[in-house]
Amino acid sequence: MIASQDVFAIGNQELKDTLTTVTTPEESHSAAHLPSAFMVLPFIVLLAMIATGPLFYHHFWEKNYPIIAILLGLVTVFYYLYFLNDTHSLLHTAAEYLSFIALLSSLFVASGGILIRVDRKSTPWLNAGILLFGSVIANIIGTTGASMLLIRPFIKINKNRIKPYHIVFFIFLVSNIGGALTPIGDPPLFLGFLRGVEFFWVIQHVWYIWLPTILVVTAIFIFIDSRDVSSSETETKYTGKIEFKGMKNVLFLLIIVISVFIDPAVISWVPSLSPLPIGIREIIMFSMVVISYRSADEYILKANEFNFEPIREVAYLFVGIFATMIPALQLISHEANVLGDKLNPGIFYWATGVLSSFLDNAPTYLNFLSAEMGKFGMNVNIPAEVLRFEQLHPIYLSAISVAAVFFGAMTYIGNGPNFMVKSISERSGIKMPSFFGYMIKYSIPILIPIFTIVWLVFYFQKG
Questions:
Q1: How many domains is the chain partitioned into structurally?
Q2: Proportion of the chain above pLDDT 90, given as a percent
């Protein structure tokens, strides 16, 4: 899900923790300090307010959402400190959040200093080309990087006929489904890579699922876009030129992507800053925020209508989301490991997908990977066994890999860049659908049938 969402939202401490402390089914079953199921309520309340606030009490929500998110998060923090005496889970989540916001903020600011102008008439095929291009580069610079790089020019190209569905399909393809081919594309795949899954395993076993899915979603977009005849479209002469400014910020983006791998869990000689909740990677990313903003061309920032409000909104809302979802993730982890031996690839696909729509898809993926390996008597904490698992049971690994990435498109909070794209679009004057409107009008009727076909063709009654 969340982006929590984009791949690299895995903090230095989290990597250390997840590489050493994921429980086996037997260990999970005997866990002594599971949170009360009632502690999922703060997360449900926050989710409900994110969904209903902009629709029914817009002014109150706009003014108070930072306070609401923080207060609900503090309810969970207080429970873990005084009732469970569990500081480990809180520090673990703090590290994850700091890494998450370091990645998103650095990519957001660095891309804000890049100006792309395409002086061509908006057409369904041009739009589809941009969406396909974004889906491909999402595997190179991550879904967050691709989204932040292309959303502004995509809006400007369609300035005379922009509709909410343009942005929704951008979220579907560029912000989510596109990044399913490499560990760089999305956080769960990166966690799998750190566990021992070979770097090119995903593209070898997922491309034939990724490609038709991308093409079908794009074809639906072309059909809808072709039927939309905007009365505001005027006869304008276009030069056909493509303008690109801000090359130094491309270097900053490259540094940010490379920094994803600068961690002691990936490169042994990289120093750990434990017990600090950040590492060298996060320091580099936050440095890029300052450097890229201070060195950006003011003309480019103005042309991009750049401001910090989208990342501010994400920072506040997701600090509450990360905190309040701790109990839900722990309860899911326990149940997944207990029931793992009863689950087949199809069930793993739907369970991973549905939960990744609302929860952080990285730990969701890891919990179900642990359950899948436990089903076959393997330990997720041993890289050699992960390698053996991918070779012996590829259908299981494929199921959770595809679901964790694809289903992030189901909600605004399914992946980090979703909310940022929504916020940037709204500040550009586009009236985006509400939380439930997004699901009811777009993601459920468009994506669920496609994801169901994926399940029937590739995972139904297999394993």
A1: 1
A2: 54
